[in-house]
Amino acid sequence: MSNLSEISHCSEPVGRMRPEHVDLAKSPLVRTRARSQPVEQLRSDIRNVCGDFEIEPRDVSSGRVNGDVSTISVSRFQTAIVSLNAKRVLRDRNMIRRDPGEHLFLLIQDKGNCWIHQNETSVELTPGDMYLVDSAHSSEFVYNGADARQVSIHLPRAEMLHRFGGICTGGIAIDRTDPLFLAMRAVLTKIFSDDISVAPHHGEAFLSILGAYFRSVEHQDSLRDRASNGVLSRALCLIDRHAMDADFGPQRLAELLQVSPRTLQRQFGALGETVGKRLLAVRLDTARARLNSAEEGSGRNTIAAVAYESGFNDLSYFYRAFRDRFGMPPGDLRKKVSL
Fold first, then answer.
1. pLDDT at 291 over 50
2. Domains, the chain, ranges and CATH?
């Protein structure tokens, strides 16, 4: 398999590196003979190589699909080359129960495009892209009837979990702008082109780079989590500080944090609430504390004064919100305190 394509020239800045797509069509080791056949036959061939998958043909009424499945050994891993022009291929929970997933499939898009839906994420693969599919999770591959070819390197799931932990499961797109993507592609080129006697060493090198990529992903996820937690912590502090200002709301809070309102709401979603609900709770708790601590008198200690100083500029709204939160109007609480 001498023409896993050339890696693009590395004189470009790293962020702009764009390797050419994998081209297996000219390799003498690959025997893809896409031909018209009953969809049941292609489904059976894929099941024997990759596991239980359902195929929806481009023309359902014909019951036929152009496709082919062939296998080769890449290093110590079985590899499948799948060509087809189906509308979509899917693997659901029933199929997983009948045929538990024992592999992670490293897909290399060789020809055409494919949308992969797995683990509540969607990724479009174009020629050259790589995606690690988890056969233990439901998945859907959408081709919309166009001709497509994919290389699937089968990595034992148990071994991958032992090596890398859960970060490698559930489906993960390999970012082709990452320098480690280029390193993986370079090693794959060697694996597909070198003598089989040295291929096992290249296979171990590939797994080492893949592990480095996973550690990088974990690190980036950790940084994002810390950044998210930092935004939420600062937001809570700012609410406590500015809640008594009736003009202070979600928009102003987002401006102070220098994040979008949508991002801010997503942070509060982790607490099961919204910025508005948090502000209202702080204002009501403040009003209740003030009503509990002072008897009614002239000036500052009237219910209206307490409401305005707690961040409310609408007295009728304050009464309604107070009753909803504490089960009594503020006047009844004032009477209980007096007694």
1. yes
2. 14-193 (2.60.120.10), 228-338 (1.10.10.60)
> Taking CA 213 as the corner, what is the angle to CA 211 and CA 217, rounded to the nearest 5 degrees?
115
Residue 112, pLDDT > 90, answer yes
d(CA 136, CA 168): 12
From 44-58, 71-85, 87-101, 129-143, the region with the lowest mean pLDDT: 71-85
3-class DSSP state of 171: coil
Q: Which of 108-112, 134-138, 306-310, 332-336 has the lowest mean pLDDT?
A: 332-336
Q: Tokens at residue 67, please?
A: 């496709």
Calpha distance 80→152 (Å, rounded): 5
Nearest to 138 by CA among 123, 118, 154, 158: 118
Task: Read off the tokens for 325.
Answer: 């939160």
- Interior CA angle at 51 toward 92 and 37, to 5°? 95
**Alpha carbon 270 to chain centroid distance?**
17
User: Who has greater pLDDT, 199 or 174?
Assistant: 174
* Lookup: tokens for 322: 């107070």
Residues facing residue 214 across a β-bridge: none
